Amino acid sequence: EVRLVESGGGLVQLGGSLRLSCATSGFFFDEFAIGWFRQAPGKELEGLALISVGDGRRFYTDSVKGRFTISSDNAKNTVYTVYLQMNSLKPEDTAVYYCVVGWNYEDRVVASEWARLGREVFDYWGQGTQVTVSS
User: Fold this and answer.
1) Which has the closest alpha carbon to 80: 66, 65, 99, 62?
2) pLDDT tens track for 73-84
3) Pairing of strands 68-76, 58-60
4) SS (H, E, C) the chain
5) Which residues make beta-bridge pairs with 100?
6) HSE of 117 in the Cβ direction (CA atoms, 13 Å)?
7) What are phi and psi of 91, to 5 degrees?
8) Contact 89, 11 (CB under 8 A)
9) For 15-53, what is each residue's pLDDT tens digit?
10) Which of 15, 95, 99, 134 could share a disulfide with 22, CB 3.0–4.6 Å?
């Protein structure tokens, strides 16, 4: 059974930082890509960052490049944890943030317009964690 458990959201002031965590389990990690999306009230889902687990390649969308960093930890072989370090936060970063997992065989995910396709390429979604940035 695939599990995604997110944590780390909360309230932060303008310019502050937060680190989100997503503990994943239940699948063969190397064949998958794991990423982060967010959705603000009244807005579309927005892809942010992605890591190809098998080779460590990382991808970012322009809206967060330079401010957000995706990283991972496989210290426990049965749990693969992905982090999203968010710096220089702005009120427009306020949203529910989701951890997502997609099967990346032959770069199915990373070679696609993954940030736009969302649920078409990511099969598993976390429950979401709220991030609120106050001004």
Assistant:
1) 99
2) 876 678 999 999
3) unpaired
4) CCEEEEECCEEEECCCCEEEEEEEECCCHHHEEEEEEEECCCCCCEEEEEEECCCCCEEECCCCECCEEEEEEEEECCEEEEEEEECCCCHHHCEEEEEEEEECHHHCCCCCCHHHHHHHCCCEECCCEEEEEEC
5) 35, 125
6) 14
7) -55, -30
8) no
9) 999 999 999 999 888 899 999 999 999 999 999 999 999
10) 99
Q: Give the whole-angstrom CA distance, residue 44 versus residue 38.
A: 9
Decide: 53 and 77 in contact? Cβ < 8 Å.
Answer: no
Site of tokens 């370090």: 85
**Two tokens, residue 89:** 């936060």
- Burial of 121 per CB tally in 10 Å (0-12, 13-18, 19+): buried
